[in-house]
Amino acid sequence: MQEIDKNKPVMVTGATGYVAGWLVKKLLEKGFTVHAAVRDPEKEHKIHHLNGIAANSPGRIKYFKTDLLHEGSYAEAMEGCEVVFHTASPFTSDFKNPEKELIKPAVKGTANVLEQANECLSIKRVVLTSSCAAIYTDAIEVQKIHNGAFTEDIWNTTASIDYQPYSYSKTLAEKKAWEINKAQNRWDLVVINPSLVMGPPLNPQATTSESFSLLKQMGDGTFKMGAPKVGIGLVDVRDVALAHFKAAFTASASGRYITSAHNINFVELGQALEPKYGKSYPVPTKALPKWLLLLIGPILNKSLSRRFVKNNVDIEWRADNSKIKRDLDMNFRPLRETMEDSFQVLIDNDII
């Protein structure tokens, strides 16, 4: 891997996003010129927080109007860059047509950005935001692994367009990225695979991340009778942004990186909030019984299908994060700090 020239601009796709915002902040504070590729640079409410950060940082930000689904859309934004951070991808469970709303934007968008990297001769490294969803669909799958923890060698083979289409979209998009990367030898690809991302958003009024919806439910009474004890991994958004930064500028970084700090479940999220917020908000501290969720889960929430409940509730989730700790010298924030900082943002912005 050739050294990256830190005086050259870097491009960030989906720059107004949840993880991307913290990454852009880091880059600006380190003095980089950031080419922010966004859908609509005219929407002031989407970019005002980035402008505020840029005004108080040594770096500079330039906006470029781009569209994930349009070939050639990223040509101008990529010009002169040596690093591309591709973070833009849909993350929602609220969709009517998974093919159109999740899979096509994820796969075609990834192809458009990486094929543009093939055209742009200055590019040396692409850092892609994938997900642990490209490694597994259900927590129960960990029980079939010989060392009892998900690792970077594992690929999701169980998601489909009919079951967990979000996980399916992330798997197909990351596979497409590796396919394009392996067909050339000028730029290298490093992939960040976060688990569920929590932590304070930089632009809370415009945040659409699914993890934000879950956090809101922790305080609005949705789980006041208890939460489903769904086994998950969790990581702070600020740590995910730092992982992207380190992946770009650590010459020896290579392959995929599970970016997950804690092997936990939904009930433990509530328990982390309880000491500070339990008296004022109905944060969940106990689990709903699995038999009850099998009966009423699909009525409570369409994503709590019987298959999902069976394969994820009361199942311990485990991932091995030793590779990122070793290769990128990553340390992760404690759970309580992540949860309290996130929840406080909701309170301060009258969201709960």
Automatic annotation (TrEMBL):
<protein>
    <submittedName>
        <fullName>NAD-dependent epimerase/dehydratase family protein</fullName>
    </submittedName>
</protein>
<dbReference type="GO" id="GO:0016616">
    <property type="term" value="F:oxidoreductase activity, acting on the CH-OH group of donors, NAD or NADP as acceptor"/>
</dbReference>
<keyword id="KW-0560">Oxidoreductase</keyword>
<dbReference type="InterPro" id="IPR001509">
    <property type="entry name" value="Epimerase_deHydtase"/>
</dbReference>
<dbReference type="InterPro" id="IPR036291">
    <property type="entry name" value="NAD(P)-bd_dom_sf"/>
</dbReference>
<dbReference type="Pfam" id="PF01370">
    <property type="entry name" value="Epimerase"/>
</dbReference>
<dbReference type="InterPro" id="IPR050425">
    <property type="entry name" value="NAD(P)_dehydrat-like"/>
</dbReference>
<comment type="similarity">
    <text>Belongs to the NAD(P)-dependent epimerase/dehydratase family. Dihydroflavonol-4-reductase subfamily.</text>
</comment>
<feature type="domain" description="NAD-dependent epimerase/dehydratase">
    <location>
        <begin position="10"/>
        <end position="248"/>
    </location>
</feature>
